[in-house]
Write a structure and sequence with these properties.
Layout lengths: L1 H29 L4 H12 L7 H7 L1 H6 L5 H12 L2 H27 L2 H22 L8 H23 L4 H40 L8 H25 L1 E2 L5 E2 L2
Antiparallel strand pairs: 1-2
Length: 257
């Protein structure tokens, strides 16, 4: 217990000594007055006082010594304040213009954040794009090549990219609607061209099938000749029989044909 008390007293003494040293150091820094520096700052700021030591300024900075008081900062501050006063009205007008412009831009931002044009035109563009994709898938079955299908698929991807770019663009809904209608017109035009191409492929396939088809016409000439010969023979026999029976028969009956 005695050792603990001695230790506590020692720590208290050391703590007091440290605090005393810091207070003395702080008081030295705070209250170390330099009259030469104070005079220099006073002359620079308000033009009062004099520069010390005078011999030093006379020997090395004589020009500054003679004009320092008249060129103090207080004069320049006063002149700057007077010249800045008329700018208040200009600043107010600029603020009013910027406030009005900010209101307009707020409306523009609100107009650009919601894609109302897509809500109005998106369904028909999507339907036309799906029809275009369906016709592209018919190319191979209609007789086209894979290369042709890939080329038309490139058009399809171009339209998809154009729609995505228009949706992500920072533009008003009026301009966005014009872009959507232009895309719809392009899709319609390309779809009509594709339909004409499919019709051409279909006709080409049918023509090729007709040209490649073979028709084996049956040969009925022998049967026709046989039938004609039989009719001729029957006719000949009929004529011979009629000539022998014309006149009177064995019973004396006259037969008229």
């Amino acid at each position: 217990m005695r050792k603990y008390i001695i230790y506590l007293k020692s720590m208290t003494f050391l703590l007091g000594l440290i605090v005393t040293i810091q207070v003395k150091a702080q008081s030295y820094v705070t209250y170390n007055h330099d009259e030469a520096k104070m005079n220099q700052i006073t002359v620079q700021e308000i033009g009062a006082g004099c520069l010390t030591p005078d011999l030093y300024y006379w020997a090395f900075h004589n020009s500054y010594r003679n004009s320092a008081a008249s060129k103090n900062k207080l004069t320049y501050r006063a002149l700057a304040g007077v010249s800045a006063y008329p700018q208040v009205e200009d600043a107010d007008s600029i603020e009013a213009a910027l406030t009005k412009r900010a209101e307009i831009e707020a409306l523009n931002i609100a107009d650009r954040q919601i894609d109302i044009a897509w809500l109005a035109e998106g369904s028909k563009i999507t339907d036309k794009l799906n029809a275009f994709q369906t016709n592209i898938n018919r190319i191979v079955s209609a007789g086209g090549s894979i290369h042709d299908k890939d080329r038309w698929n490139d058009y399809y991807h171009i339209f998809q990219c154009a729609i995505k770019a228009t949706q992500d663009a920072y533009m008003p809904n009026a301009q966005r609607k014009k872009e959507y209608l232009a895309i719809y017109a392009d899709i319609t035009k390309q779809n009509e061209t594709l339909i004409a191409y499919l019709v051409q492929l279909n006709k080409k396939a049918k023509t090729a099938n007709l040209l490649s088809a073979t028709y084996n016409k049956p040969d009925h000439r022998a049967a026709i000749a046989t039938a004609a010969h039989n009719r001729w023979r029957d006719a000949g026999w009929g004529n011979n029989g009629g000539n022998s029976n014309s006149g009177s028969n064995t019973n004396g009956i006259i037969i008229q044909e």
